[in-house]
Amino acid sequence: LMATRAGGIRLVTCASPAYLAKHGAPATPLELAGHDCISFGAFSPAERWVYAGLAKSQRVSVRSRLIVNTADAAIGAARAGLGVTRVLSYQAESSVAEGALRLILEDFEPEALPVSLLHREDRLPQAKVQRFIAFAAPRLRAALKAQSGRPR
């Protein structure tokens, strides 16, 4: 396979302003132990979330008030003020833009997940594939850059 790197997607932690007003915003991942969490099982076990540390990654034990299997459910519960959740940045983008969710613990986010366009060199005529990559890659990069809010 050939890969053309387009950017990255962040794994973000967020909560509603109402939840944060009532419970306070955690300043470090370790403070999540005192918060209600909404776990979305696609990224990590419900009882442990991984964050970037100063020297190495930190596994943080969390108390999952709710465990869901879709990002929409996690975001909906967080918007309703039920707790703190972790989802991909593009999944929370509209809720953050609306002010329904606030990003927290941004300084501790793990490295962004890479996004690439993949193709097999031998499957399609090279010219068509190259034209598609030339068309799609800049648009995908722009979309990822716009939603990321900051370079990673």
What would you report as the Rg, rounded to the nearest angstrom? 18 Å
Separate helix tally = 4
Quick one: how many beta strands? 9
Q: Give start-end ranges of low-pLDDT stretches.
A: none
Main sheet: strands, sense, barrel: 5 strands, mixed
Description:
The protein has 152 residues and is α/β, with parallel strands linked by helices. The strands form three sheets. It has a five-stranded mixed beta sheet with strand order 6-3-7-2-8. Strands 1-9 form a two-stranded antiparallel sheet. The longest helix is centred in the last third of the chain and has 23 residues. The relative contact order is 0.26.
Keywords for this structure?
152 residues, alpha/beta, five-stranded mixed β-sheet, 9 strands
Task: Summarize the helices and strands and which ones pair or pack.
Blueprint: E1 2-9, E2 11-15, H1 17-23, E3 36-40, E4 48-51, E5 58-61, E6 63-68, H2 71-79, E7 84-88, H3 89-98, E8 102-104, E9 113-119, H4 126-148
Parallel strand pairs: 3-6, 3-7
Antiparallel strand pairs: 1-9, 2-7, 2-8, 4-5
Could you give a quick summary of the protein structure above?
The protein has helices at about 15-25, 70-80, 90-100, 125-150; strands at about 1-10, 10-15, 35-40, 50, 60, 65-70, 85-90, 100-105, 115-120. With about 150 residues, it is α/β, with parallel strands linked by helices.
